[in-house]
Amino acid sequence: MQRFRWAQLFFASLGLLVAAFAAHASDENFKLMCTADGEFLQVSSDHSVPEARCKAIAERALKAYAFITKQSEWKDPGIVRANPLQFRLLGGNLKVLGYAKGPNLMVMRDSYMDESLSEGTLAHELAHIQDLRQLQGKRFPSFMLEGRALTMGNAYRMSIGQKPNTYDQQMAGSAVRFTAGQAEELLNEFRGQGWNNQAIGTVLVEYMRTKWNGGIPAIQPRLSRLIEGMAKGEEFEAAFQKEFAASAHSLGDAFAAHLNATKGNAAARLQGTIWQSVSAPTTAQPSAADTAEMLLYAAEWLDD
Ligand SMILES: [Zn+2]
Q1: Which helix (H) or strand (E) holds 259?
Q2: Higher pLDDT, 132 or 281
Q3: Which listed residue, of 25, 46, 118, 152, carries a Cα 20 to 30 Å from 238's Cα?
Q4: Ligand 1 center to residue 144 CA distance, Å?
């Protein structure tokens, strides 16, 4: 019942968000504020942004973009550089943090850029941008895109010296709570969205990296190969079989067995993962941080 009321509140907020985005949607509200890396990165805004701030944000975006390119190890990195990247800064105090809209447009709330977690959001959304550019219109399971983007966002935050925070604690909490039954349901939905879709994808990618078939340390480049295969027209199952010499179904079975074997044992569940040193909260109720993230991802989905 608690969760249901919470969900109602969430969807009511979502309605307000849709209205807010509609007001911001028209291109003429945005003026070019600065560019960086030649004309590649184009920062525009619906409000006045001092040039020094604009340039600093552009540099941060370029740094995160380069990190994602390096982690992904694309066969053809030229694809992610072929078109300009539009970067919009939203004024005001909307609840949205940031989102990617298709392969060429990224939106962030200007004031959120001052919070440290925004570095992770930057890397996360830019990972989506690069994946969408490589996929060239092909559809990849959303939980895997999210799992990939979230783990790269985490890796980016750690690479610039940040420490695990409340957000990581919430994700660790989800990682500890998932049952095999929930996982099966969530992983059967290739167009899912929301916190649990994000979380199961992240837990799955971490499982593949640390445990599946002995662990696949280079999981990000391997997932890039999968994306590149699909871009060439392969179906997901076939591309997966080719890359991992195992079926996606067998991964699902092994993952379910892992969740069953580590049920009620948080240390075993998180062993070796990015959450190993993070203490998971014990409450099952989503926190305010969860809600903010859910709004972020819901917005992302709405604007796909
Ligand atoms: Zn995402």
Answers
A1: helix 248-261
A2: 132
A3: 152
A4: 10
Alpha carbon 229 to chain centroid distance? 21
CA of 147 from ligand 1 middle (Å) equals: 8
| CA distance linking residue 76 with residue 96, whole number of Å | 33
CA of 44 to the centre of ligand 1 (A): 22
Q: What is the Cα–Cα distance from 171 to 274, expressed in whole angstroms?
A: 10
Tokens representing residue 173 in the block:
């909490």
The pLDDT tens digits of the residues spanning 61-96 come to 999 999 999 999 999 999 999 999 999 999 987 777
Is residue 267 a contact partner of residue 169, using CB atoms and an 8 Å limit?
A: no
**Residue 2 CA, ligand 1 centroid: distance in Å:** 26
- Cα 296 to Cα 154: distance, rounded to the nearest angstrom: 16
Question: Residue 153: which residues within 8 A CB-CB, separation 6 or more?
Answer: 120, 121, 122, 123, 124, 127
β-pairing, 105-109 with 98-101? antiparallel
Tens-place pLDDT, residues 256-301: 999 999 999 999 999 999 999 887 665 555 555 555 555 554 445 4
Q: Quick one: CA torsion of 84, 137, 299, 294, rounded to 10 degrees?
A: -120
Alpha-carbon distances, residue 7 vs 147, 182, 194, 262, 304 (angstroms)? 23, 18, 11, 29, 22
Within the chain, how many helices (H) and strands (E) appear? Answer: 12, 5
- CATH numbers and ranges of domains, the chain: 15-297 (1.10.390)
